[in-house]
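Tokens for chain A. Residues wanted.
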């Protein structure tokens, strides 16, 4: 993980080339961790050397992913299910702060037993390497889902509702994630969301995990209060959730920048544009995204409210589709009756119970058929003429 130490004067563009506006000037003094530049070339051989190594009772197979301070391997055991094993890098295993963060991730995730949070199976240390064993989630990440254009909006909305539900549960337990982003949301093969990577999480009643001026997280999803060096709260997770929702319904994040500090400035000072919804997402989601992206944490909804509004939007679309389906089915049944009813009533009217009611129904059916198809299907059969030998 790369560190960027900066004491910069950032000028807000005034709208004219070569000019700088004095009142828009913002000063940023921060030591920013850049998790987006997570994989240094020197770390890849390290991950390859661990393939085939046994940590605890788990034998490491292929590398599933690489991060700033640890790699995730496929782990196998005799007779047991496959798991995901996160192993700290050799250098990180000698850093006390990294070890504490690693242990905190394990402790936090073990406390959060929820169907939409990645379950921790085991945690330990082997040969001086700390490792964390998690359930294996094989469906990819939310990032892959958002990058696809053929995914039904209902499916994406339902996944986001599950993410919000999981985070609301964590908040109720006094835990703030602090690094909510699509890459930290995994999907099962059935499409269920699983929130992962609580490495930056902390209890809301704890003091800041880092020194003053040090920002932890991903710049593209960082809340304004985190940028300003203030304490991260549950509202910070809501802000990140708003960015994910904005990206889902528009296909783009509300802010883009060429540098990490550019992102930080926009989060702190620039208001997001009104979302232009793509596809068939409900219009209510645009308002929800903007509510989550409020600069003032007190103006944002709670994560429970976000989950409820996402669930409502998903269910409304589902109920509408179900009602349309029912209407189409009823129309098909009615059309079949219009076509078949005259033929069904004709024989009945010739039997002994061919009462006037049946004859009236037959005439009505023929009239409806004629109105629908512009012509009758055939003249109702009259009583057959008497045979010659029957005439008198």
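Reply:
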């Amino acid at each position: 993980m790369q560190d960027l130490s900066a004491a910069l004067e950032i000028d807000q563009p005034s709208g004219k080339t070569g000019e700088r506006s004095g009142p828009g000037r913002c000063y940023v003094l921060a030591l920013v961790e850049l998790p987006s530049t997570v994989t240094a070339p020197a770390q890849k051989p390290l991950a390859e050397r661990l393939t085939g190594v046994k940590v605890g009772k788990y034998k490491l197979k292929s590398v599933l992913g690489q991060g700033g301070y640890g790699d995730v391997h496929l782990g196998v055991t005799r007779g047991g299910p496959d798991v995901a094993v996160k192993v700290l890098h050799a250098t990180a295993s000698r850093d006390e702060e990294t070890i504490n963060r690693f242990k905190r991730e394990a402790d936090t995730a073990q406390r959060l037993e929820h169907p939409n949070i990645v379950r921790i199976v085991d945690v330990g240390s082997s040969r001086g390497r700390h490792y964390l064993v998690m359930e294996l989630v094989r469906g990819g990440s939310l990032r892959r889902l958002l990058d696809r254009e053929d995914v039904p909006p209902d499916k994406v909305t339902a996944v986001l509702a599950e993410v919000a539900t999981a985070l609301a549960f964590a908040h109720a337990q006094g835990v703030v994630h602090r690094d909510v982003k699509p890459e930290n949301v995994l999907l099962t093969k059935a499409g269920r969301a699983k929130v992962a990577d609580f490495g930056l999480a902390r209890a809301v009643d704890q003091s800041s995990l880092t020194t003053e001026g040090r920002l932890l997280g991903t710049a593209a999803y960082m809340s304004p209060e985190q940028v300003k060096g203030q304490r991260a709260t549950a509202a910070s997770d809501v802000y990140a959730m708003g960015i994910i929702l904005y990206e889902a319904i528009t296909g783009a994040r509300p802010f883009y920048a060429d540098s990490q500090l550019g992102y930080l400035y926009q989060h702190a000072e620039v208001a997001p544009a009104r979302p232009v919804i793509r596809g068939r997402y409900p219009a209510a989601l645009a308002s929800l995204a903007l509510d989550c992206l409020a600069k003032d944490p007190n103006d944002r909804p709670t994560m429970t409210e976000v989950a409820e509004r996402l669930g409502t939007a998903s269910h409304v679309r589902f109920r509408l589709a179900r009602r349309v389906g029912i209407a189409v089915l009823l129309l098909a049944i009615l059309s079949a009756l219009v076509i078949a009813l005259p033929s069904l009533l004709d024989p009945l009217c010739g039997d002994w119970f061919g009462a006037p009611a049946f004859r009236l129904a037959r005439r009505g059916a023929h009239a409806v058929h004629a109105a629908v198809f512009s012509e009758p299907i055939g003249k109702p059969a009259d009583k057959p003429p008497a045979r010659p030998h029957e005439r008198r």
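The domain at 138-319 is CATH 1.10.510.10 (Transferase(Phosphotransferase); domain 1). The longest strand covers residues 2-10.
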